[in-house]
Design goal:
Largest sheet: none
Strand content: under 5%
Shape: elongated
Helix content: 55-70%
Radius of gyration: 19 Å
Number of strands: 0
């Protein structure tokens, strides 16, 4: 029984550490998008085709994973509330 508790504790510690790493990586990716890709005057070649193909494969990306909340931050808006921008 004790051995199982030790393994469970190690697994929880591992999950917490991986969650921290994932959060850090997300921050770095978003900063890269903001400062590099979205700061350009013209998009990189094939960017539109890549985005279209990605959305065709997984259209849920536009509505899941906090996409609307992330949009304001990526575009530099402050106080962006997606629910207030919906058409009636």
């Amino acid at each position: 029984m004790r051995e199982r508790e030790v393994k469970d504790k190690q697994e929880r510690r591992r999950v917490r550490e991986l969650n921290k790493q994932a959060e850090s990586a997300t921050t770095v990716r978003r900063e890269f998008l903001r400062s590099t890709l979205l700061a350009r005057k013209t998009p990189p070649k094939m960017a539109v085709a890549c985005i279209a193909a990605t959305l065709a494969r997984d259209p849920g990306l536009m509505s899941e994973y906090k996409a609307a909340e992330s949009l304001g931050g990526l575009l530099g808006f402050t106080g962006y509330y997606p629910a207030m921008c919906q058409a009636k």
